[in-house]
Structures are given as structure tokens and as C-alpha cells.
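ESCALATION

Customer reports they have been waiting on this structure for their group meeting. Please prioritize. Original submission:
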Amino acid sequence: MFALTTRRARWFAVAVLASVVSYVAPVAASADDARHGRVLVRPLPGCSPGRIAADHRASVVRQIGDLPVYELYVATGDMAAVLASLANDVRVITAEAVDPVTSTDPGQSQFLFAFDRGPLPGSYTNQVAFSQVNLGKSASVTKGKGMRIAVLDTGIDAGHPDLAGHIEQGYNAIDPAQPAADVADGLVNSAYGHGTMVAGILARIAPKASIMPVRVLNGDGIGTMANVMVGLRWAVTNGADVVLMCFGSDTVSPLFAGEIQAAHESNVVLVASAGNGESSDIRFPAGLHGVTSVAAVDAYDIRAQFSNFGTYVDYAAPGVGIRSTYPGGAYASWSGTSMAAPFVAGQALLLASLVDEREPHVIDWLMEKTARPGNPAFAGELGKGIINIEKSVYLASWIW
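Update from on-call: job pushed to the front of the queue and completed.
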């Protein structure tokens, strides 16, 4: 896990906790912008961000938070040199690159995806994965009523017949003027439907919970850490009990880590996919302190070949050939830790609706005490085990 350790980082966490996202101008930040020169800068009090930007051949895109934290666009030049120059600017407290985030991992060219229009609506729930996590009758006990989960993803097709009545209006962090719909706006649209499929799993596990789509990824499954930060702040401010993040980055933003810490301290349960890189390399936000990291297993409880593993993983859940809702009233099967993470997030919704103390550590304790062992070849690297939803719901009902 990654923890904030420096005095400056702790100061940022406190500052971000009090912040509210606001825009200087309605300019949407794209993943291409991240690769070609987006930086986050926090000036000293009284110093003009516009003047700082101009002095470094940049322009102000937007402000994030009540404190003076600004996203700048650097049109030309060596980004490393620009960051070094900003770091040496006496008017700047901190500066960091706006790194891209993806719903896959570097080198992963596809998602083991299979499209089909399927039989009748609702039949997508008949699959072994829900038996693996022992959903049983737990959904009928609580249904997650009164709980709200924010899905930071590609958006959701709220018009799908199996999602009708489950989806709130949500927020589009890429373009706030547009709805948080799951649309094909990428170059190849390899992630189109990703958020809708995640939502289908959640709706099956916690049918009475409200799902808040927060669009932070485009149709290619690519976004920026800045937009993720905006989306997370929106979700927490608008009452999310659980936040699900099925994307990752190889690097960590201290400013985003502050947002994560603030959300965790606000008793929001944070769940993230561990990554599909077939390695123990830490992906973020899954590797951040306060985030529940989820690896994937196959139908035989064996670590999925693509799944990341390691000491930063907290739990495992099915992630191979998971069939769920797809835009346009269709269905599809998808593999990835992104398909495993919603099982854990759905469990968190059910448990949060039952317990009096909704602190993340209480939810985690219930999950840990009821998880079952899996894949002994990766002992200690797939977390505390494969989740057992019905057993954890029974334990929560017995205690509370």
C-alpha cells in the first residue's frame, strides 16, 4: 500500500478534504492532453497562476478545489524540463504531471471480450461467478437499499432494461455539459460498454442500491488522473457510500492520493481493480492506502492468467468470462480485474446497508472474517481470500 508520509503530503490531504471542485473555464481535458503536457500546479498564496503559466509557456485550463490548485496545459517543450522549471519556481509549492489512466495495463491489447445479444433480459445473472462468491439469498436480505455507489468508468447506459431504475443522473468529468453515458467516442472504442457491464454486476448483487455513473474514461478506456480526481471529489460530495474504480496507472499523484485519503477518512469505501498486467507491480489507485484492491480468479478459484497479484491485493473475485449488461439492451462476456472488482463493491454495499458503523474498517473486517482461501500457489498474494457474500451478510445481520 502507498501511504502519505511527508509533511507536505499530509498538508495536501487536509487541504483537499476541504475542497470543492470548480472550473475556471469549460475546457475538457483529454488523455491526449495528458500525454502532450498537462500539469497540476499549486502556487504560493497571492501568486497568480496565470502569470506562472505564461512564464512557463503554458495556459490555465481549470482550477481544482477551493485552494489554488490549477491544471495547466503546456503546448510545447520537454515536459521533464517544464516540470523541473516549475519545481524551481519560488512561486510554486508543488507541480506534477497529469498522468493518463487506463482500464487496461500497458501491453494488454484486448479485454478477452465476447459480444452477444443474449437471451431475454435478466438471464445474464445465471452464471457460476455468483455462486463462487456465494451470493445465495443475501441480496434478498438487504438488497443494498439506501446505499449509493459511484462508478468511475466509461459511463453507463441507463436505458438498458436490466439497469432501469438503478441508475442516477451522475456526472461527466470529461465534459460536464454532457450526461455520464457510455458512448463510443474513442479511436478504436475497445472499452465501450465497460462501465455498463460493471453496473450490471452491481445491480445483480445489490438491486436496491443506487448507481451513480461518473464518466472519467473515454471509449478507449483512457482518461486523466486530473479528471479522476474531479470525479472522485464529485462522488464524495454527492453522497457516495462506495466508490468503484476499474482503471489504473503505474504512477501515483500525491494530490490524488490526498483525495483518496480524504474520501477514506469520510468513511467512503473505496474499491479498485488490481490490474491486468500478470505481475506483482503495483497499480494505482489499487495500491493506495485506504483502497480495497481486487484480483481476479477463474471458475476454478485459480488466479486468472492476466490478473495482477501481490501483497497490495486485498481480495479476489471471479473475473473470467463474466457475462453482464452491454449498451443498447445487449449482453456480453468480459474478462479482467475490472469484472472482479464490482463483486467486492457490491458486497460492500450490502454490508454497509446493515451495519450501524459504516466505517471502511468495519466493512473490511466482515469481508476478511468470511473470505475463503483460494489458489494456494499464490498464498499471500491474492489478499485475504475469495469473498463470501452470503456468509458476510449473515455475520453482519447477527451482530447488528
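Sent to customer with the following note: The longest strand covers residues 291-297.
Escalation resolved.
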